[in-house]
Amino acid sequence: MKIIKISLLLLTVLALAAACKKKPKPGYSTVKLDEVFELKMSQSVVVKDNDLKLTFMSVPSDSRCPKNVDCIREGEVKINISAAVDGRGQTLEFERAPSTQGNVTRAIGNFKIQLLDVSPYPESGKKIKPEDYVAKLAVRKAG
Known about the structure:
By secondary structure, the protein is mostly beta strands. It has one helix and nine strands.
């Protein structure tokens, strides 16, 4: 009888511990460090086991030369990501040209946020709606 009571008590404690585990804020998806992930316009993520939150805020400009069009210059896309570490936030601006080799990186706190790509790529005669933009990102520890 005593073993059953102790077992039930232990199961209750374990269930409560699992329920109290730190969960991301509602509306935030969870990503891991060093993991490549996609962030849609107005979407937010929190980095697992870290106090870093990212939100894709805007695309101030997209002057990339559309597919199948001859342009004098290739253009670039600029995006703004809101980043907050330990409750302190700032807006990070990324600028990426189609010919950019490697990642465009910005730092906040002891993290490096890397922009790998922005899609969709412009096409002649088609307007990209703000909600259609997707940023491909990765978060790494700095240093």
